[in-house]
Amino acid sequence: MVLFTLVMSGMHASVRHVSETLHPFEIAFFRLVFGLVAIVPFFYSQGFGVLRTKRLPMLWLRGVINAGCMLGYFYALSIGPLARITALGFTATLFAIVLAIFIFGEKVGLKRWSAIFLGFAGTIVIVRPGFADIGIESIVTLGAAFGWAVCIIIIKDLGKTESAATITAYMSLTMAPIVLIPALFVWTTPTLFDFAWLIVIGILGGLGQLSMANALKYGEAQVVLPIEFSRLIWIAVIAFIAFDEIPGLFVWIGGGMIMAATTYITLRESRLKNVVY
Fold this sequence. Notes:
It is a single chain. The chain is built from 13 helices and no strands. It is an all-alpha fold and about 280 residues long.
């Protein structure tokens, strides 16, 4: 999960850099194509057996939802401050917790709901409706976060029967044709320099997805997911060095509220499984 936070921070910063010359939809397509490089070793060792599955519809569903999330998130990265987009993206974990409550019929007490509300209050602090321009990037990021929350639930379920390589392979194979359609309407032929960056984005993205799939497969979600919050630190450092961006105070306060709420919930779950609180 630590590897996931590092490579995804690097990938998102690279997306911002390349979006100066290429449309984010086109970047998303190449990210998926070159992302397959990360699983080439699995095809080499397992052949096309890596694609063997009995849960094709669920893998396809995950790919379709994730395609929409990626298009939205890449677009937000191209127009909004990196730290702000990253902090709002953390709501995916909160959305996933709420979805798990309703999907799995968990009983939730006052303390847990209070933490959930604290997390979403952190989102309001970051966006500050009525005090600052909300911005299309914030709306798009929150929509993508909800879609990613659905994908987290699906990945966790798929991890019970499918390997991380299978999950990652079907993600790229399903999403690439979907993302190619909108990318064709904004297509610009990449330069050799752009291609080099696109390869980096693809490889980092593939490694990130592989790391996430393995983290959820071998570790408890409530243990590994809070580690994702370290991304705010990595992306803030990168944004300052590469783009001269300094996260505002409200981004840190709101992001901290989201981190605290989600960490409290997940750690409490790990200690009190099946207990109403």
